[in-house]
Amino acid sequence: MDEQDISLALQQQVLDAFQNKTPLAITGGGSKSFLGRTAVHAQPIDISKHRGIVEYDPCELVLTARSGTPLQEIEAALAEAGQMLAFEPPHFGDSATLGGTIACALSGPRRPYSGSARDFVLGCQMLNGRGEILRFGGQVMKNVAGYDVSRLMVGTYGTLGILLETSLKVLPRPAASITVASECSAAEAIASMSGLLGKPYPVDGACYHGDRCYVRISGSAQAVKEARTRIAGDVVADAEKFWHALREHELPFFRHPSLSGKARLYRIMVKPATPPLSIEGSWLLDWGGAQRWLRSDEDIATLRRRVELAGGHVTVFRGGDRDEEIFQPLSGPLLTIHQRLKASFDPKNIFNRGRLYADL
Amino acid sequence: MPHNRKNDVALNIGLLRALRSLLPPESVLVDAEDMRPFECDGLAVYRQLPMVVVLPETIEQVQCIMRLCHAQQVPVVARGAGTGLSGGALPLADGVLLSLAKFKRILSIDPHNAMATVQPGVRNLAISEAAATYGMYYAPDPSSQIACTIGGNVAENSGGVHCLKYGLTVHNILMLKVVTMEGDLLTIGAETLDSPGYDLLALMTGSEGMLGIIVEVTVKLLAKPERAQVVLAAFDDVVKAGEAVGSIIAAGIIPAGLEMMDNLAIQAAEDFVHAGYPRDAEAILLCELDGTHAEVSEYIATVRKILTGSGATEVRTAVDEAERQLFWKGRKSAFPAVGRISPDYYCMDGTIPRRQLPHVLRRISEMSAEYGLAVANVFHAGDGNLHPLILFDANKPGELERTEEYGRRILQLCVEVGGTITGEHGVGIEKIDQMCLQFNNTELAQFHAVKAAFDPSGLLNPGKAIPTLPRCAEFGAMHVHHGKLSHPELERF
Prior knowledge:
The complex is a heterodimer of chains A (360) and B (493). With 360 residues, chain A is of the alpha+beta class. Chain A has three domains: 3-172 and 338-345, Uridine Diphospho-n-acetylenolpyruvylglucosamine Reductase, domain 3 (2-Layer Sandwich), CATH 3.30.465.10; 176-247, CATH 3.30.70; 262-318, CATH 3.30.70. Chain A contains eleven helices and 17 strands. In chain A, strands 3-4-8-6-7 form a five-stranded antiparallel beta sheet. In chain A, strand 3 (53-57) and strand 4 (62-66) form a beta hairpin. The longest helix of chain A is centred in the N-terminal third of the chain and has 14 residues, at 7-20. Chain A is globular. The two termini of chain A are 35 Å apart. Chain B has 493 residues and is an alpha+beta fold. Chain B has helices spanning 13-22, 32-35, 59-72, 124-131, 150-156, 163-166, 200-204, 238-250, 263-273, 293-309, 321-332, 334-341, 357-371, 399-416, 435-438, 441-454, 469-475, and strands spanning 28-29, 52-54, 76-79, 96-99, 106-110, 115-118, 136-137, 173-179, 185-189, 213-220, 222-223, 227-235, 257-262, 283-291, 314-317, 344-347, 350-351, 375-380, 385-392, 480-481, 484-485. In chain B, the strands form five sheets. In chain B, strands 12, 13, 14, 15, 16, 17, 18 and 19 form an eight-stranded antiparallel beta sheet that branches. Chain B has a five-stranded antiparallel beta sheet with strand order 5-6-10-8-9. A four-stranded mixed beta sheet of chain B has the order 1-2-4-3. In chain B, a hairpin with a 4-residue loop joins strand 18 (375-380) and strand 19 (385-392). In chain B, helix 1 runs antiparallel to helix 3. The radius of gyration of chain B is 23 Å and the shape is globular. Chains A and B meet through strand 7, helix 6, strand 9, helix 8 and helix 11 of A and strand 9, helix 7, helix 8, helix 10 and helix 16 of B.
């Protein structure tokens, strides 16, 4: 499909919705519709036709694209110049767009080592709930003029406005990469993955799955060769496939039949060195132990209490009752600030009402 | 009371009494002499004594102070070490200056989770010193890191010479404890890599004391690179040096630091610290590579080849750690070095897309001739952050005004080429008018609405960072938005 800028048409739709207080459901490629809460019934506003890479100069390490641009198209353009989105975003489907990725703050296995989606956002153009087109941040690495609204937009699930365009910092692809794996217990894997945080090795992925601890090492050819001698484990063949399947939730762990039944897939965030949590279910530890996936029948309230004690928080990633609070509830004063912020961007509460929290 | 005050604002006796019942006597300052050290930050052309200075030492005390001030509608300005360069911590005559100088404990260093929790008055460098036991460090290293505090770093989203590779403050913190104007204690972010809800951590970082008082900071720690090595390259043409920067990045290398200095800056630094820079060069590049031993060796070889291929007249790799430190010393003392050759200098802080460098440098040099003011350029070349230092003499009538006008035009130029008015020093009071160049009225209104979500009464650091719309109207500048004038169809004279 051709590149096109439909921001004025989108603006008109928002102006009408503002006038009539019509709730809007922002949609792109539809690949992230399983995430978050069930939003209140609303008129769809489709951004998928607002697409195209607006600017990309590999020497500047900056790419700007419209929200409806398919992630695949962006990654192909970057690959051609030997570059990449260093937060390694999951697509969760071929139709994934840049806008959805940013709105849902999705990052892949590299996240603990390179940074998250929000870390790479430099600027944005957005439509707020008054139908105003606003620009924040820019296309430069360093910019402290005004509040950092462009990073605030990351992970808001469309509740503050419609992202029209995002500028991202991009990075060179590593020249070489290998993955080593070794058999161990979860506790041993956590200790060794956390130990790597204190070592200056070019690690850019670490996970524990199926009694094996996988460590990905990427960088210059010499760096990888050198690190290989320092990190124990057997070299994994076809490692790229493994990390891709992990990122896209295509490993059998994520496709388990129980998930279409009573079980839920929980995303549990804890400090990386937290010992294994004794909660019934199947575990997969990614992000060096900082992001833990749990497939379990355990109810969310009990689970949240247990994880809070360990200083973490829980998201119901797949399954369960999507009308409940999917994300960890916010404390009173924090929720108040969220509501005031929401009102400051979207005074008539038209965007993705209830998608993030029932009260937002 | 025999208060030796120059302020014409009456002291709020009720508030003072309440503050004195809350804090020990030495933590409430009202005499002009005692408050003098707090009258300005690193931008000393702006000075103002506050109504009162308070130095709390517990979070509860901060909460009580905020509740008192909120109840009496008294504005509050927070202050760390006062090393800021944009007047962000400039006191208000009718306000409380809240110093966090007593919050200087490192609360925990957790190498297993690669994080440290510290009070806001802890110096930037002290964190890295404490983490060094574990072979770790805190990455952002603003040039003032020996003195500046982490609370101020968060408020300004401070950078440093290594931020192309390691990011700014916003990329290197996990969690904040913040006291609101109403006295509520909030936890923003988490010890985990992300936290539920909106990314308020991003919003707080760089908010210049407008949204809350930072009372605790949890930072990320990184493993110290095994080796760091620096290459110095000399060029007979600034444009060639700029192109070399692009070539290094195009080759897939992200240097830990990539700095450029022009001839005047080279001369000044050389006179001051004898760093061994080639005096006749039009520009030098300092390129630091870090990582593991083999990685650094590989990158050094590649970078040397690129620099030579880009027309460098000389390429030198520091022979040892002492020479590496010396190369950096020249760069890091560029500001004081320029201070030695001119009675005064004014440091600008624009950021531009790197490809615009030749154009911007040419315009800066043309304007230098036009204003009759010399300028030395120091440039974080890797990330496009330009620090032109305008040399002037404040004792010569009209020269400060000419300098400020020249500075404003440089910032306008940065916005015109798609950059920003401030890369790392913040807006504060200094660049508040230039905000009107970069943002239009709806964007500024949105900023004010964001502030109101945290501080509905508008008592936190009022008058800084975000201009009011009437102020912009008065400033009367043409709004230049991302390289485009707002009405391109109109002729401009």
